[in-house]
């Protein structure tokens, strides 16, 4: 078989063999990693950091997709804090925050159901206002019974 091959065929066979060797070497270098842990333990954070380190930054499309995830996580965190405030019977100092809270709770269910972020949530003013108020409440609660010098 080798005797009847043209010079071009021999070069192509040599290239093919080299590509096969490189593929085997790459396969041997590939590592499969199984990350186990509870929700919120940082599995996806490690994955994202590894991607940034070894593959470079995220594309515009990936950033757009993660924007929804970041907003959703932010809203869920705010909701958890507000629920805890309700259980502990801690009120906002500013009664107008009740409307902001209503706006934050209503669209969050549509994000979970439809996977679409409401325009009310993309306006970070509501989120920032409620977060500022929550921060004030947390500080106020932490300072209860503490005498300032």
Automatic annotation (TrEMBL):
- Any keyword Metal-binding? yes
Q: What keywords is this UniProt entry annotated with?
A: GTP-binding, Magnesium, Metal-binding, Nucleotide-binding, Transducer
Instruction: Supply one GO BP term.
Output: adenylate cyclase-modulating G protein-coupled receptor signaling pathway
Q: Name one GO cellular component term.
A: heterotrimeric G-protein complex
Positions with a binding annotation for Mg(2+): 44
Q: Which InterPro entries has this protein been placed in? A: Gprotein_alpha_su, GproteinA_insert, P-loop_NTPase
Q: Which GO terms describe its molecular function?
A: G protein-coupled receptor binding; G-protein beta/gamma-subunit complex binding; GTP binding; GTPase activity; metal ion binding
The protein here is known as: Guanine nucleotide-binding protein G(I) subunit alpha-1-like
Q: Which organism is it from?
A: Scomber scombrus (Atlantic mackerel)
Question: What lineage is this protein's organism placed in?
Answer: Eukaryota, Metazoa, Chordata, Craniata, Vertebrata
């Amino acid at each position: 078989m080798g005797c009847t091959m043209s010079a071009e065929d021999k070069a192509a066979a040599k290239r093919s063999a080299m590509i096969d060797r490189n593929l085997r070497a790459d396969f041997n270098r590939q590592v499969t990693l199984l990350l186990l842990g509870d929700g919120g333990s940082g599995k996806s954070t490690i994955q994202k950091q590894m991607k940034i380190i070894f593959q470079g930054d995220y594309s515009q499309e990936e950033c757009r997709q993660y924007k929804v995830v970041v907003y959703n996580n932010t809203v869920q965190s705010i909701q958890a804090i507000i629920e805890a405030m309700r259980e502990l019977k801690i009120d906002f100092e500013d009664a107008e925050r009740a409307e902001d809270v209503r706006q934050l709770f209503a669209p969050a269910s549509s994000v979970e159901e439809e996977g679409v972020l409401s325009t009310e949530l993309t306006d970070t003013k509501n989120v920032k206002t409620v977060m500022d108020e929550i921060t004030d409440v947390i500080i106020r609660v932490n300072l209860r019974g503490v005498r300032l010098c």
